[in-house]
Amino acid sequence: MKAGAMDWVGLLGRVLMSAIFIHAGYGKAMEPAATMAAFRHLGLPLPGVAYAIALAIELGVGCLFLVGFRVRVTGLILAGWCIATALVAHYHPENRDAMIHFMKNVCMAGGFLQAVAFGTGRFGLDRT
Q1: 8, 19, 76, 92: which has the highest count of C-beta atoms within 10 A?
Q2: Are 88 and 45 in contact (CB under 8 A)?
Q3: Per-residue pLDDT, 1
Q4: pTM over 0.90
Q5: Alpha carbons 61 and 14: distance in angstroms, whole number
Q6: If we measure between CA atoms, which residue out of 11, 12, 14 comes closest to residue 112?
Protein backbone atom coordinates (compact mmCIF):
# COMPACT_ATOMS: atom_id res chain seq x y z
CA MET A 1 0.00 0.00 0.00
CA LYS A 2 1.21 3.51 -0.75
CA ALA A 3 2.15 5.83 2.11
CA GLY A 4 -0.90 8.06 1.53
CA ALA A 5 -3.24 5.09 1.69
CA MET A 6 -1.68 4.06 4.99
CA ASP A 7 -2.63 7.44 6.46
CA TRP A 8 -6.26 6.73 5.57
CA VAL A 9 -5.98 3.27 7.12
CA GLY A 10 -4.55 4.85 10.28
CA LEU A 11 -7.44 7.31 10.44
CA LEU A 12 -9.99 4.54 9.95
CA GLY A 13 -8.27 2.54 12.68
CA ARG A 14 -8.49 5.46 15.12
CA VAL A 15 -12.17 5.97 14.29
CA LEU A 16 -12.99 2.30 14.81
CA MET A 17 -10.88 1.93 17.96
CA SER A 18 -12.17 5.08 19.64
CA ALA A 19 -15.84 4.43 18.79
CA ILE A 20 -16.32 1.81 21.51
CA PHE A 21 -14.94 4.12 24.20
CA ILE A 22 -16.87 7.20 23.12
CA HIS A 23 -20.07 5.15 22.90
CA ALA A 24 -19.49 3.54 26.32
CA GLY A 25 -18.56 6.87 27.91
CA TYR A 26 -21.68 8.50 26.53
CA GLY A 27 -23.77 5.66 27.96
CA LYS A 28 -22.13 6.10 31.34
CA ALA A 29 -22.72 9.86 31.23
CA MET A 30 -26.42 9.30 30.53
CA GLU A 31 -26.83 6.72 33.32
CA PRO A 32 -24.54 7.67 36.22
CA ALA A 33 -26.55 5.86 38.93
CA ALA A 34 -26.73 2.63 36.95
CA THR A 35 -23.03 2.84 36.13
CA MET A 36 -22.04 3.35 39.76
CA ALA A 37 -24.35 0.47 40.79
CA ALA A 38 -22.56 -1.75 38.25
CA PHE A 39 -19.21 -0.65 39.66
CA ARG A 40 -20.42 -1.50 43.18
CA HIS A 41 -21.54 -4.91 41.92
CA LEU A 42 -18.02 -5.48 40.58
CA GLY A 43 -16.70 -4.73 44.06
CA LEU A 44 -14.89 -1.55 43.08
CA PRO A 45 -14.10 0.75 45.98
CA LEU A 46 -15.29 4.35 45.64
CA PRO A 47 -17.69 3.84 42.72
CA GLY A 48 -18.07 7.62 42.31
CA VAL A 49 -14.33 8.00 41.77
CA ALA A 50 -14.31 5.00 39.42
CA TYR A 51 -17.17 6.62 37.51
CA ALA A 52 -15.26 9.90 37.11
CA ILE A 53 -12.13 8.05 35.96
CA ALA A 54 -14.15 5.97 33.48
CA LEU A 55 -15.78 9.09 32.01
CA ALA A 56 -12.47 10.90 31.72
CA ILE A 57 -10.80 7.98 29.99
CA GLU A 58 -13.63 6.79 27.78
CA LEU A 59 -14.97 10.17 26.66
CA GLY A 60 -11.96 12.42 27.14
CA VAL A 61 -9.08 10.19 26.13
CA GLY A 62 -11.25 8.40 23.55
CA CYS A 63 -12.00 11.71 21.80
CA LEU A 64 -8.35 12.81 21.96
CA PHE A 65 -7.28 9.51 20.38
CA LEU A 66 -9.93 9.93 17.68
CA VAL A 67 -8.62 13.32 16.57
CA GLY A 68 -5.02 12.16 16.77
CA PHE A 69 -3.88 14.31 19.69
CA ARG A 70 -0.86 12.82 21.52
CA VAL A 71 -1.70 9.41 20.10
CA ARG A 72 1.27 7.73 21.71
CA VAL A 73 0.18 8.87 25.18
CA THR A 74 -3.57 8.42 24.66
CA GLY A 75 -3.00 5.04 23.03
CA LEU A 76 -0.96 3.91 26.01
CA ILE A 77 -3.69 5.08 28.40
CA LEU A 78 -6.37 3.26 26.40
CA ALA A 79 -4.25 0.10 26.17
CA GLY A 80 -3.88 0.14 29.94
CA TRP A 81 -7.62 0.78 30.34
CA CYS A 82 -8.37 -2.21 28.10
CA ILE A 83 -6.23 -4.51 30.24
CA ALA A 84 -7.58 -3.09 33.52
CA THR A 85 -11.21 -3.49 32.47
CA ALA A 86 -10.49 -6.94 31.06
CA LEU A 87 -9.14 -8.06 34.44
CA VAL A 88 -11.77 -6.33 36.58
CA ALA A 89 -14.91 -7.00 34.55
CA HIS A 90 -14.29 -9.88 32.18
CA TYR A 91 -11.82 -12.37 33.64
CA HIS A 92 -14.04 -15.33 34.49
CA PRO A 93 -12.33 -18.46 33.08
CA GLU A 94 -15.42 -20.57 33.79
CA ASN A 95 -17.58 -18.34 31.58
CA ARG A 96 -16.89 -18.63 27.85
CA ASP A 97 -18.76 -15.41 26.95
CA ALA A 98 -16.89 -13.39 29.57
CA MET A 99 -13.58 -14.76 28.32
CA ILE A 100 -14.44 -13.73 24.76
CA HIS A 101 -14.87 -10.17 26.06
CA PHE A 102 -11.64 -10.54 28.01
CA MET A 103 -9.74 -11.55 24.87
CA LYS A 104 -11.37 -8.74 22.83
CA ASN A 105 -10.06 -6.25 25.39
CA VAL A 106 -6.59 -7.79 25.18
CA CYS A 107 -6.79 -7.55 21.38
CA MET A 108 -7.83 -3.87 21.54
CA ALA A 109 -4.88 -3.19 23.84
CA GLY A 110 -2.63 -4.64 21.14
CA GLY A 111 -4.15 -2.31 18.56
CA PHE A 112 -3.56 0.70 20.78
CA LEU A 113 0.05 -0.36 21.27
CA GLN A 114 0.42 -0.35 17.48
CA ALA A 115 -0.65 3.30 17.53
CA VAL A 116 1.84 3.93 20.33
CA ALA A 117 4.58 2.39 18.21
CA PHE A 118 3.74 4.00 14.87
CA GLY A 119 1.98 7.28 15.71
CA THR A 120 -0.89 9.15 14.16
CA GLY A 121 -0.16 9.36 10.48
CA ARG A 122 -0.93 12.38 8.36
CA PHE A 123 -4.59 12.67 9.43
CA GLY A 124 -4.24 13.53 13.07
CA LEU A 125 -3.31 16.52 15.15
CA ASP A 126 0.09 14.96 15.89
CA ARG A 127 0.87 14.17 12.21
CA THR A 128 3.59 11.66 13.07
Answers
A1: 76
A2: no
A3: 63
A4: yes
A5: 12
A6: 14
